[in-house]
Amino acid sequence: MFEAVVSGATDPEIEGVDLVRRPALTVSPAEMLEADGYLLGSPANLGYISGALKHAFDGAYYQLLDSTRGRPFGLYLHGNEGTEGAERAVDSITTGLGWSKAAGYVTASGKPGKDELQACWELGATVAAQLMG
């Protein structure tokens, strides 16, 4: 799913957008502040976002709060037993930050199929396209 999102976000037709990849455990608040938009991915373990993604938000939330309002974001999730709790968590966090949901969330249960991978590609392309120009 990650590779499909990256492929969409780096499509040759998208110009003037640089994709920076950072693992959730190592992304710094400064790097999050420098970004103009966000593509978030997470497993949905036990019905919630990964501890790593939660850690990234916990470490940067108040620094991002007034500085990143309106920035577009996209989310893709992989879970074997439902992603609803993870979706609610991201909704709550991003609503608090004032981020703008660029497209519907992409979710997959079990091994991602062709449709889910295409949706991931479109998610990456949609967020990147909103940042062009």
Structural overview:
The protein is an alpha/beta fold and about 130 residues long. Helices cover about 45% and strands about 15% of the residues. The protein has helices at about 1-10, 30-35, 50-65, 85-95, 115-130; strands spanning about 40-45, 70-80, 100, 105-110. Strands 1, 2, 3 and 4 form a 4-stranded parallel beta sheet that branches. Strand 1, helix 3 and strand 2 (about 70-80) form a beta-alpha-beta unit. Helix 1 runs parallel beside helix 5 (about 115-130). The mean pLDDT is about 95. This is Flavodoxin family protein. InterPro entries: Flavoprotein-like_sf (IPR029039).
Categorize the overall geometry: globular
Any idea what the CATH architecture is? 3-Layer(aba) Sandwich
CATH-assigned homologous superfamily:
Flavodoxin domain
- The CATH topology comes to Rossmann fold
- Count the helices. How many? 5
Helix- and strand-based class?
alpha/beta
Which series of helices and strands comes N to C? HHEHEHEEH
Distance between termini? 27 Å
Strand content: 5-15%
- For the secondary structure, the number of strands is 4
- What is the total number of structural domains? 1
Mean pLDDT: 96
